[in-house]
Design goal:
Elements (H helix, E strand, L loop, with lengths): L5 H5 L2 H10 L4 E2 H8 L3 H13 L3 E6 L2 E6 L1 H12 L7
Antiparallel strand pairs: 1-3, 2-3
Length: 89
């Protein structure tokens, strides 16, 4: 996981919504901004934090930058959370 506090990044509803949108496949910034109804500047801020936490990856293709969810970070997070599971009887 990145150096950024993943829990702080995930605490924001719009960033969680971006991740939910990306679970169905990659999207460019314009598509994300249109669905969220946010300005490019606001979206840029959220994408910057998601990238810093390694929750998303970006790919440049022609004149567009596409964003995709990074599932390996979620796998690590799930393993970390599972260590706190209750004892099985």
């Amino acid at each position: 996981m990145g150096d950024t506090n993943i829990f702080k990044v995930l605490a924001d509803g719009q960033r969680r919504e971006i991740l939910t949108m990306l679970k169905d496949g990659r999207m460019n910034a314009g598509e994300i901004a249109e669905q969220l109804k946010v300005t490019p500047a606001a979206l840029s801020y959220h994408l910057k934090l998601l990238k810093a936490a390694d929750l998303i990856e970006e790919y440049k293709e022609k004149n567009f930058i596409y964003y995709e969810i990074n599932t390996t970070v979620f796998d690590e997070l799930i393993m970390w959370v599972n260590q706190f599971g209750g004892k099985k009887k």
